[in-house]
């Protein structure tokens, strides 16, 4: 069965600094990988997804992620963080019956000014 | 505007009562999903439906029930058998049933609190 690990529960970065959120997955076949963002009390918004092709994926709001099969990772990056990026970020892998999404536990991003 | 609506946003229930959470989508999506979110645990799949009049259990279906009588609607009932129902519930939909690369779009969620 597929699984996702997000090693960092909380991360704090200064506004304008770069950001990298880690995601490791376990899945036997070619993974379909997603990053979602959630503001407090809200639903999830898709940032980007990977399912084939170029291993560097561009998303919305200036985010990008790199798929590294050898490391089973799909880390999310942003070169310069804005205060509005403060939220919870979820990595997910799709697979199995019914387009099932398996989520990591999430990483809460705090941005300090 | 196309999207997913969930109602109510906040819901309070006494122990021993059943309660139904609404999820409606006007995206013409085939598949719909219910997730439960608890702090520090991410989202866990409760039920999903790939087509009208059909649905399957997810990872934590015990104490929950669903129906899919219309393509646009997928209500979730939290029954009194659910031991710890206080949580944030998220509904999602995707375009093609069984399409692994298809994006799931999420509603705004319902926060259920058992008093």
Would you give an account of this structure?
The complex is a heterodimer of chains A (113) and B (115). Chain A is an all-beta fold and 113 residues long. Helix content of chain A is 0%, strand content 52%. Chain A has no helices and 12 strands. In chain A, the strands form 3 sheets. In chain A, strands 2, 5, 6, 10, 11 and 12 form a 6-stranded mixed beta sheet that branches. In chain A, a hairpin with a 5-residue loop joins β5 (32-38) and β6 (44-50). By secondary structure, chain B is an all-beta fold. In chain B, the strands form 2 sheets. In chain B, strands 2, 4, 5, 6, 9, 10 and 11 form a 7-stranded mixed beta sheet that branches. A 4-stranded antiparallel beta sheet of chain B has the order 1-3-8-7, with no helix packed on it. The termini of chain B are far apart. The model of chain B has no long low-confidence stretch (mean pLDDT 91). The A-B interface holds A 4, 9, 32, 34, 36, 41-46, 49, 51-52, 90, 94-95, 97-101, 103-106 and B 4, 31, 33, 40-45, 48, 50, 56, 58, 90, 92, 94, 97-109, 111.
Topology:
The complex is a heterodimer of chains A (113) and B (115).
Chain A: E1 3-5, E2 10-14, E3 19-21, E4 24-26, E5 32-38, E6 44-50, E7 56-58, E8 64-68, E9 73-78, E10 87-94, E11 101-103, E12 107-112
Chain B: E1 4-7, E2 10-13, E3 19-25, E4 31-37, E5 43-51, E6 54-57, E7 64-66, E8 76-78, E9 87-94, E10 105-106, E11 110-114
Parallel strand pairs in B: 2-11
Antiparallel strand pairs in B: 1-3, 3-8, 4-5, 4-9, 5-6, 7-8, 9-10, 9-11
């Amino acid at each position: 069965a597929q699984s996702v690990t997000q090693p960092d529960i909380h991360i704090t970065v200064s506004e304008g600094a770069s950001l990298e959120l880690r995601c490791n997955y376990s899945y036997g076949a070619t993974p379909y990988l997603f990053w979602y963002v959630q503001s407090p009390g809200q639903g999830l918004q898709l940032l980007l997804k990977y399912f084939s092709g170029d291993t560097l994926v561009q998303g919305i709001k200036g985010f990008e992620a790199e798929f590294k099969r050898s490391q089973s990772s799909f880390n999310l990056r942003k070169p310069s963080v804005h205060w509005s990026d403060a939220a919870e970020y979820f990595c997910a892998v799709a697979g199995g019956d019914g387009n099932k999404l398996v989520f990591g536990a999430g990483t809460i991003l705090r941005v300090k000014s | 505007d196309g999207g997913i609506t969930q109602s109510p946003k906040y819901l309070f229930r006494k122990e021993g009562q059943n309660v139904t959470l609404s999820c409606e989508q006007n995206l013409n999506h085939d598949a719909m999903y219910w997730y439960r979110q608890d702090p520090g645990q991410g989202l866990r799949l409760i039920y999903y439906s790939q087509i009208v009049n059909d649905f399957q259990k997810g990872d934590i279906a015990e104490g929950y029930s669903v129906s899919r009588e219309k393509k646009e609607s997928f209500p979730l009932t939290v029954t009194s058998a659910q031991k710890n129902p206080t949580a944030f519930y998220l509904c999602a939909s995707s375009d093609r049933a069984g399409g692994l690369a298809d994006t799931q779009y999420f509603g705004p969620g319902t926060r259920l609190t058992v008093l």
